[in-house]
Amino acid sequence: MLTTMLLIMVGLLILGFPMMITMLAATIVTVMVFLPNIQPIVIVQQMMLGVQGFVLLSVPMFMFAADIMVAGRTAHKLLDFVESFVGHLWGGLAVTTATTCTLFGSISGSTQATVVAIGRPMREKLLARGYHDSDIMALIINSSDLAYLIPPSIGMIMYGVISGTSIGDLFIAGIVPGILVLVLFSLFSIFYAKAKNIPLLPKASWRERVQATKNSFLTFGFPVIIIGGIYSGFFSPTEAAAFSVLYAIVLEVFIFKSVKLSDLSKIAVSTGIVTTVVFVLVGTGTAFAWVLLRTDTPDNYLGRTWCRSINPESTAYS
Fold first, then answer.
1. How far apart are CA 70 and CA 217, in angstroms?
2. How crowded is the C-beta side of 293, counted as CA atoms within 13 Å?
3. What are the angstrom distances between the C-alpha of 32 and each of 109, 150, 288?
4. Any alpha helices (H) in the chain, and if so which ranges?
5. Is 84 buried (19+), middle (13-18) or exposed (0-12) by CB count in 10 A?
6. How far apart are CA 264 and CA 245, in angstroms?
7. Cβ–Cβ < 8 Å for 178, 150
8. pLDDT (tens digit, 9 = 90+) per residue, 283-298?
């Protein structure tokens, strides 16, 4: 059975089908062939159960807050703040990119939003300084993946819902690894810039640094609200997500005035499309996992593998 599922998934992936289709097709075929006594409607029920968790409400709200900030000035203010302090160093622009991706990830929790918000303005700057386009893409995409580690990570929220792990514990566990990866990216950027003799940027004055800090000060309210609110017990993750949306609207619409109230409906539609794709993937994964558990695949496969690793002549689980 496991071989059949793998062949279906690999075959469909090679043909270019998205992951949700491959998992759903493998699930349906397995139920129809190996579990004929189960009605196919059960697959739909399992998919619905997978997206019924209350904490999953935080996913579209964090995405909505991130999309509002992408449409506004938050990313640019963060970039100006980081660049004013490290832009004059070797690899300053690359370090600025990695650091700002980390900061924006701590605000949005979304890798996609981070790529759009940081990658768009930084790519042209990096190209102008002599970086190769392939290196720029690698830096932006991999730095944006730090949003998976730095809270409020949407990936951690989804994993916590599916596995039953405490989302607060997952958030805490991701902070130190995220910072360490950022340090490694920064060190590599410094060595790369020296090796390629990338030109240095002029050093910002302390007046410019103070001004950049003032301009970006309000944006740091996001991690304070989200992390501080959750660990102080004042917010649940879902409530923190709702408050982040409110804070993003207040910041971008009424303070920075970079987003109009009439733009929020368009941003919400875009968020809804992305959320739908994410939730279908979660529901499909839940049904796929249910089939594996229903057929005792983990126990049978892992038990057989463990017995043979201890005793190659064992006939257990044969």
1. 17
2. 7
3. 39, 41, 13
4. 2-14, 19-34, 41-50, 58-71, 74-86, 92-108, 111-114, 120-128, 133-144, 154-163, 167-196, 206-216, 221-223, 229-231, 237-249, 263-294, 297-310
5. buried
6. 11
7. yes
8. 898 888 888 888 777 6
CA 64 – CA 58 distance, rounded (Å): 10
Residue 279 to residues 242, 283, 303, Cα–Cα distance (Å): 18, 6, 32
Q: For residue range 52-97, what is the model confidence (pLDDT) as tens digits? A: 877 788 889 988 988 898 888 888 898 899 999 998 999 999 999 9
The whole-angstrom separation of Cα 120 and Cα 105 is 15
Answer yes or no: are the C-beta atoms of 175 and 106 closer than 8 Å: no
How confident is the prediction for the chain on average, in pLDDT? 85
Q: What tokens were used for 53?
A: 């968790």
Is 65 within 8 Å of 275 (Cβ atoms)?
no
Q: How far is Cα 318 from Cα 316, in angstroms, rounded to an integer?
A: 5
Respond yes or no on whether the N-terminal peptide bond of residue 152 is cis (omega within 30° of 0).
yes
DSSP H helices, 197-236, are 206-216, 221-223, 229-231
Whether the per-residue pLDDT at 174 is higher than 70: the answer is: yes
Residues 6+ apart with CB under 8 A from 294: 35, 38
- Torsion sign across C-alpha atoms 163, 166, 167, 169: negative
Q: Can you spell out the DSSP letters for 28-40?
A: HHHHHHH-TTS-T
- Which amino acid type is present at position 297? T
- Kindly report, residue by residue over 228-257, the tens digit of the pLDDT: 777 777 888 788 888 889 999 999 999 998
**Percent of the chain beyond pLDDT 70?**
93
Give the Cα separation of 86 and 201 in Å (integer): 9
DSSP string, 95-106: HHHHHHHHHHHH
The tokens 């059975």 sit on which residue?
A: 1
Using CA atoms, how far apart are residues 137 and 282, in angstroms rounded to an integer? 28
What are the tokens at 58? 């935080």
